[in-house]
Amino acid sequence: MSGDPHIPIHMLRYVLLVAETRSYKIAAQLAHRTQPAISVAIKQLEEILGQPLFEPEDRTRLTSFGLTCLQPIRDLVDHHAKTAATLHRISKHEFETVSFACVPTASTHLVPALLPRFLRKFPQVGVSLLDDNSSNIGSMVLSGRVDFGICSIRVPNPQLHFEPLMQDRYGIICAKNHEIADRKHLQWNELSRLPLIGSVALEQLKSVPELSTLPEPKVHIWNMMSLLAMVESGNGVTILATLTIPPSYSDRITFVPITGPILPREVGILRLAQRSVSLPCSQMISMIHEHVRNQMSDFAARHDNTA
Questions:
Q1: What pLDDT digit, counting tens, does each position of 189-239 carry?
Q2: Cis ω on the peptide bond leading into residue 209 (within 30° of 0)?
Q3: Facing residues of 96 across strands?
Q4: Is 84 in a helix, a strand, or coil?
Q5: How far, in Å, CA of 183 to CA of 231, rounded?
Q6: What is the third-level CATH fold of 9-91?
Q7: Which fold has domain 97-303?
């Protein structure tokens, strides 16, 4: 209640020290204070409480009131000590968890190399990783479910801050034995004759004029592994970006670039605008940028099969 008196925690500690040691001298030594300071603080506490805690003729012996108060005082001091220790450990990131969500591009090409380095640097920090599409990742960041996302965006949101990481391009993904697998490139207007499977990427590109004349796919698959399995089996083709393809699929499916025009995709860090992040989270984001600069650009260059 707002009318309750404020009791400084150090006063309660002094009461415990005197009651347990039966000596103001020892209590002062343990508290790193002078004996008069201990005595004054206890008297001030008694004034706040309105009753004496120690007998007037023996200031080291608790009164009946003091004995009644002893356990609540001990509980409060112990709780304060545990809370202070917890706050200190939090400040050292010992209870921290960095949570982020990423598209398959990051989960396959970035995370395996990034996480071991991060955990070596912050062994006391936990990591929570979600794998999803860009649309869902944006919702996760907005709701605070994750600290940040690694994804692409087509429509900017003023509530979100986007830091570009890498760029690749969209194309057709097909089985190795598909009739278009040997093509160097395709035009957008050639897609209408292909058994196109709907995907998140296709949904993101619906506003592109070149796609406005395409027939609506009869099959839509939102899960990346299911989509790749369908394509690998030869039951259709789909539109994906270059780096979306997991390395393990490089000898099982083929990427055929689409030209006229070339449509780029930008992948980056997505987080809440005007919201600071924890030190480990900030360090992870910095490590992501560093990793992309050092390695992902080379990977993209090797796989950018332009016409």
A1: 888 888 899 888 888 777 777 677 777 888 899 888 899 999 999 889 999
A2: no
A3: none
A4: helix
A5: 17
A6: Arc Repressor Mutant, subunit A (1.10.10)
A7: D-Maltodextrin-Binding Protein; domain 2 (3.40.190)
**CA 272 to CA 142: how far, in whole Å?**
7
Residues 51/63, Cβ–Cβ less than 8 Å: yes
101 and 139 Cβ atoms separated by less than 8 Å: no
Which amino acid is located at 142 in the chain? L
User: Quick one: DSSP state of residue 162?
Assistant: E
Q: Rounded to an integer, what distance in angstroms lies between the CA atom of residue 31 and that of residue 139? A: 52
136, 146 Cβ separation under 8 angstroms = no
CB of 283 closer than 8 Å to CB of 147: no
Give me the amino acid identity at 44: Q
Q: What single letter denotes the amino acid at residue 221?
A: I
How long is the chain? 307
CA distances from 4 to 50, 194, 236, 289 (A): 13, 76, 72, 52
The sign one gets for the Cα dihedral 163, 166, 172, 174 is negative
Q: What is the distance between the alpha carbons of residues 215 and 5, in angstroms, rounded to a whole number? A: 74
Same fold? 9-91, 97-303: no
Q: Stretch 272-283: mean pLDDT, rounded?
A: 84
With 0.85 as the threshold, say if the pTM is over it: no
Q: What is the largest CA-CA distance in the chain?
A: 103
pLDDT tens for residues 227-236?
999 999 988 9
User: How crowded is residue 195: how many other Cβ atoms within 10 Å of its Cβ?
Assistant: 14
User: What is the residue extent of each domain of the chain?
Assistant: 9-91, 97-303
How many Cα atoms are found within 13 Å in the side-chain-facing hemisphere of 77?
15
Sign of CA dihedral 39, 43, 46, 51: positive
